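Lecture 7 notes: from sequence to structure.
We start with the chain below.
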Amino acid sequence: MNNMPPTLRPIHPFPARMAPSIIQHRLKSTKPMRVVDPMVGSGTTIVTARLYGHQAIGFDTDPLALLIATVWSSDIDPDSLRKLAIRTLNDARVCYRSLTTGKAYPQGANQETQAFIRFWFDATNRRQLTALASSIKRVGEPNVQAILWCAFSRMIITKSAGVSLAMDVSHSRPHKVYSVAPIRPFEKFQSALEQVLRGSHFSSSHNLPAAVVRRGDARAIPLNDSSVDLVITSPPYLNAIDYLRGHKLSLVWMGHQIDELRKLRSGNIGSERSHGSSASASNRAAIERVLGSFADLPARAQAMLVQYFGDMDRVLAEISRILKHAGTAVIVVGNSTIRGIFIRNSRMLTHLARGNGLRLVSTRHRELQENRRYLPPPARAELGASLRSRMNEEVILTFEKMLVH
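Predicted structure tokens for the same chain:
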């Protein structure tokens, strides 16, 4: 077992990434464990777990999250990848010469997706990205293709200067600021691949158990009962981030359609979906018993809150189901404020966990540094200094699965 704390360098921007330091001490076990993150995001949990020699499994529904987590936890041969990237880029340059602007879209893109691409990408970059995407799709090895897609996506998901007309894509708050993109894909692709390679930790020589990354919903985890030693995850923060808002700027080039991504987003944890009035009333009553009244919120915000905690109840039930007796769950959450009303998510999740057979072992508060935040700081004066300070932290909840008689 490897007990040296690894230093992780991300291979791709991702909103609200979990800090590896939160979980490293949990993974310094003298025996191999089965470690699961049912909302894997960019893959911090599974990469760290694999570095410590554990069997790591991650699930997510976001296609870009699955791509990043897969690549970051995979064995990589840098030299062969550099050679392949050069061939792929040269192939794209040849394709570009005969590609007209009218054909500069991913293969099979429907009209809505084409309109989306025209809005966010100038004509030259549409041609270059189309040629490059076509070249990547011709790469026969899926794992190698995924790495090239990751480099491709890095050129789009940026804070400021990228190959789109947007800024703040990496925070999932894209807004159009350029009339011509500041960077050309052909000029950036190889350096984007180098950034991926610099953050990659694994090669076939490490002889570590392979990590598994699969599409899966945390509300229905596709694993057997009592089969997991440790669950580590960070659920999406209530009302904080719409991950797909930024991610779709990359995903459309990989063959995803805007209507498909919209449907996926509508089914995510906490999204507003219609439910029976009796279930909603029951969920609302339970939340108000723990957190107090939220009747002053607009109806839409109330529905979002009820849906979020209803979804998280299902997630916690699944975490409890897959954990072995006395297994551990570490859940990193952020508290929220909606229209000036403080929502103590950590308290509600602790209540829901108890109802699902998970006993709270510890609560730890961790301050979020301003220069590392992915969420805009709560600056409204009426919140007060005390409330603003509580919004600048995340809460690390540790649970143990109780014996069910």
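Points to note: Residues 371-390 have pLDDT under 50 and may be disordered. The CA atoms of residues 298 and 339 lie 9 Å apart.
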